[in-house]
Amino acid sequence: MMAKPLCATHVLVVEDEPMTADLLRFVLERQGYRTSHVVDGLAAKAWLQGPERVDAMVLDLLLPQLGGLDLLRWLRVQPSRALLPVLVLSALDGDDVAVQAFRAGASDYLRKPFNPDELLARLRRCMESPAQDLAPAASRHG
Amino acid sequence: MADLRMPDVPLSWALALAWTTLGLVLLMVLALWLLRLWRLWQAPRQARFAARWQPLLLGVAAGDDLPEALPVLAAHERWPLLLLWLQLLLTVEGRSRVRLAALGRALGLTSLVRKRLESRHPPERWVALLALGALGDGQDVPPLMARLATAGPQTVLYLVRAALMLDPAQAPAAARHLLARSDLDLARLSLLLRPCAGPLGQALRALQPPVNSAKAVAEVQPWLCWLRLAHALRQQWPLSVLQPALQPGLDPELTLAALRLYQGEAGDAVVSAHAGHSDWRVRVQVARALGTIGSPQAVPVLLGLVTDTQWWVRYRAAQALLRLPGQTPELVLSRIAATGDRYARSMAEAVLAEQQGSV
Amino acid sequence: MTALVITWLMVGYFVALHGIYLLLTLLAARTLLRLQRYRPIEQLPLAHSQLMPPISVLVPAYNEETTITATVESLLQLGYGEFEVIVINDGSRDQTLQVLIERFGLLPYPAAYRVQIPTQAVRGIYRSVRYPALRVIDKDNGGKADSLNAGINASRYPLFCGVDADSILERDSLQKVVQPFLRVPEMVATGGTIRAANGCDVRGGALHRVELPRNPWALLQVMEYLRAFLFGRLGWSSVNAMLIISGAFGVFRKQTVMDVGGYRTHTIGEDMELVVRIHHHLRAQGKPYRIEFVPDPVCWTEVPEDRQTLRNQRIRWQRGLSESLNAHWGLLFSRRGGWPGWVAFPYMVLFEWLGPLVELLGYLWTTWAWWAGFISGQAFSLFLLVAVGLGIVLSVAGVLLEQWSFRMYPTVRQMLLLVLAAVVENLGYRQLNAWWRLVGLYRWARQKEGSWGTMKRKGNWQAPG
């Protein structure tokens, strides 16, 4: 049983739209989390490759430089971050987006426009659920 | 001869032109400078504006109650605040939206919005309509509905959205109007009318075009409009509704429109009947629809489609086969291998690889 | 005195030239003002619809092994609903195809599609396992037009977008350039604004930060592109008389292009030739149509930074212009010609095609006539003011318009540089350009097969034999 960390829970917000990013950070910080923010997929990748510890991630799918789905698939095969809870937030209105997101390894999926209370609840549940290996099937079997 | 001599260019002309040219250049450089100064002056003002209002807006969206004392809103700040507010409003839903609407009303944005509905510039009218959907009330609805008939193809979408957000009971009238139009941009419609797709879709369903005695489509065009509009509104209609358009031998566009809509759980026989259609787009939709139906009887049909000559048909058929319940990838691959078609096999392998993805 | 008459004629030419440019700039300003009003609503977070018209992006590539993966990666990242990317490898002699196969996991696959426009032999078609939207066509060398035709044959969607292998697009470029198609059903083609990427911070095929180039040639071209390619074309577009869509970025309705027979191979300016042909064809048929220009900066490309490459490029452009005009004299003053036939085409003939001849003659003649004493100092200075002075006024107006509308170069240093470039552009650069264009005109007239020259940076297109 892991001891609860003393510092506040750290959430990484990956979102390129300014208003949405501001709202996410505001809501999360209100809840007592510490937030970091990056605006594109490549910056997110660089950040995640760094040493800084993060407890959860809120990920937009439509990102410049590197798309959210590709970032997620990459993340799930990283040894240090594979179990990171990721809440995917998407503005796409296609049919299969949720399916693709889960297949890529999302812990949960929420559509934009979103309800801030619901986002918080889902994020909390992601973080509290037992950690699972969410990597896509093939890479798990090597 | 002397009369034909052209006078020389007067010095005054040359000088006048020289001064004018120089003057214009200097004037424009000055204008550049003033433009820059104006922007420099504006930037901190905008920052202060955002610093004053954004925390309030975000707070209300996040769950705060409206403060008793709201900051003073100057006249020239009303429109920028409306834009800021609208940006946030469109980002959230649920109770946050309701609270933001209350804040907007408390700030007096409603009167501004009603005034801008009459603006000369279409984009301003559209912004006003988007805001009206949250700020308005019942008295705003009749004028909106009255303007539907004369509105342009984009404005009508904003009008319908605003009207239905204020009064969903207007859905039948709105649906009738939309059906009657031939100039709609369905992509934009799908986007803008997403919040009211529920009531609008229901109203649309009640407006099914007539069928003839043989239970088939009476006239193609009304059905085509109806089905396409339903698809843009992301409706999921049962087979019974779509059946008249799924009869064999109809206009391929019609069959296509009907199949695109189909997401149901039964009727693979009706859908499979089109598996041999001459138009490849129909075959693609058959493959897709069979994937969503999920019936094991679809497997032979899909195995036939996965060996089709058209790439998209093979692609969707492979996806559908992998989607069917109880079909593991190994089973699907062995079945496809049994067909002996190597293109089908490579397609299945490609689809599998794509589903697993890689970076 | 005939000397004076000739001088007045020269003055008249330049007055007309600058007058038309002034008109175009005013039309452009009016359009920009109208478009500015759409900004607030465009910035609202209304989600992406996946029902937007699907587009096939065609990327002809020849000897692009160093840059092609970055380009394709950035294209695959475009923020658009449904689109496909088709790279056409035009018989590259380097590792272009191998690089693509490796990076994107390409596998050969059999394609059955109707060849509607004849092209050079297609050696193979590949599809990416990981990115279903990507296909690569490998064919025998045939030139850029031929490659585009092969791409059109293989494309699946009703709209196609031709880009250069070194074009750098913004994420919403495709969305922006397809907007006119959504607004106006008769739209058959749209062109995007090309801006100079020299000096900008480009990473991995995407533009990070805009900056003016340090290279003087490139800086002058930035100014030139603003004046001629942005506001000039926007002005013509507002009256539906735009005769050129740059090959670096343009969207076309596939059916229309097929109806007129596809791109013409063995032409140097295939991009202009196609657009003129579309105008010609549709005007003759009397069908309503529109061709528009999207002023937002949507496409960035490297412009030549040395004199030799620039010279070759301008010679090539003039030859392309000559060929395009020469193939479509029927449009000129045709009965149903409309604005393209009665205004834009004659303008092209007089001011762009024969223009260099008149301009250079004007400079040379008036200078000699003044030096020899045939005309007075006032007449000479009047000529200079009209030829050069008015040009400076219009160039500076271009800078002002750019600052007001797009503000891509906001700092003081950049503004001053641009104003300086506006002045220098008219004090030598345009005249030099006129000389190069004259060379191009001469070469075309002599049907010389001048080579296209080599961009010192990387690969190049070989002129079709």
Number of strands of chain A: 5
Specify the structural class of chain C: alpha/beta
Specify the CATH architecture of the domain at 52-310 in chain C.
Answer: Alpha-Beta Complex
Number of helices of chain A: 6
Total domain units of chain A = 1
CATH class of the domain at 52-310 in chain C: Alpha Beta
- Work out the largest interface and the residue count of each chain: B-C, 57 and 56 residues
Describe the strand arrangement of the main beta sheet of chain A, using strand numbers: 2-1-3-4-5
- What is the CATH H-level superfamily of chain A? Response regulator
**Main pleated sheet of chain A:** 5 strands, parallel
Biggest sheet overview of chain C: 10 strands, mixed
Mean pLDDT of chain A: 84
Q: How would you portray this structure in words?
A:
The complex is a heterotrimer of chains A (142), B (359) and C (465). Chain A is of the alpha/beta class. Chain A has a single domain (10-128), classed as Rossmann fold (3-Layer(aba) Sandwich), CATH 3.40.50.2300. Helix content of chain A is 39%, strand content 17%. Chain A has six helices and five strands. A five-stranded parallel beta sheet of chain A has the order 2-1-3-4-5, sandwiched between helices. Residues 1-6 and 138-142 of chain A have low confidence and may be disordered. With 359 residues, chain B is mainly alpha-helical. Among the domains of chain B are: 81-87 and 109-168, no CATH class; 264-356, Alpha Horseshoe (Leucine-rich Repeat Variant). Chain B contains 19 helices and no strands. In chain B, helix 15 (280-293) packs antiparallel against helix 16 (298-305) and helix 15 (280-293) runs parallel beside helix 17 (311-323). The longest helix of chain B has 52 residues, at 11-62. Chain B is extended, with a radius of gyration of 31 Å. The mean pLDDT of chain B is 87. Chain C is an alpha/beta fold. Chain C contains 14 helices and twelve strands. Chain C has helices at 2-36, 39-42, 68-76, 96-104, 144-154, 173-183, 216-238, 254-259, 270-285, 307-327, 338-353, 355-371, 377-405, 412-445, and strands at residues 55-61, 83-90, 106-108, 122-128, 134-139, 159-163, 168-169, 187-196, 201-203, 206-209, 249-253, 290-301. In chain C, helix 1 (2-36) packs parallel to helix 13 (377-405) and helix 9 runs parallel beside helix 10 (307-327). The model of chain C is unreliable at 449-465 (pLDDT under 50).
